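Protocol step 4 of 6: structure prediction from sequence.
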Amino acid sequence: MYSAIIEQFNGLWAQAFAIWIAGGWAMIPIAVTAVVMFMVGVHVYLQLLAKKFHSVPEKVWRHWIDHPDKRKGKIGRMLDFALGGNSLKDTAMFFEDLKKTEIAPFERDLKVMKVCVNAAPLLGLLGTVTGMLVTFGALATGSGGEKTMELVSKGISEALITTETGLVVALPGVFFHYMLSRNSEKYSAFLTHLETVCTQKVYKKLQKQKTV
């Protein structure tokens, strides 16, 4: 059974390698773009997963605001940092710093990923153009026969393979980027909601101190 699977895998690998070679030099930048895009995407996904901002119910972290000794985890550390001031201005400043620290890396990485998604089909189009140039060059300089037809088929094959590869890389990248963007927006909305609740708590605390 294992030998059959290995044999099948070797056959698929040989076919993939043959297609890769037929795609010409444009396959290299497409592959580099794909690797960068998915590595950045996986990095963003793992970083968002590590935030665990959905793992703590709102009722719990609202309780943590008034009870610092019970704070724990990522959200607890954010509350410790954001509520370290004594005024509304301090709270706003701390949350601004917190958002820059938490959200800015995701925005940067998602921009890099978006550039890669847009670049993949363009690199495929570049390979298409070079493949067609090879085809027209063979038609212009060839004298017919098998050699000319071989050059023509090689150019057409290169053009179609690079186009398809660029689209195959870009399409899943689009959906992956959209999913990560949505998760990043949810995390940003969570921080905004956290800031609103904390600001209200600080305001009520200050008003209570004034009345006393």
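Step 5 (inspection) to follow. Residues 25-211 form one domain.
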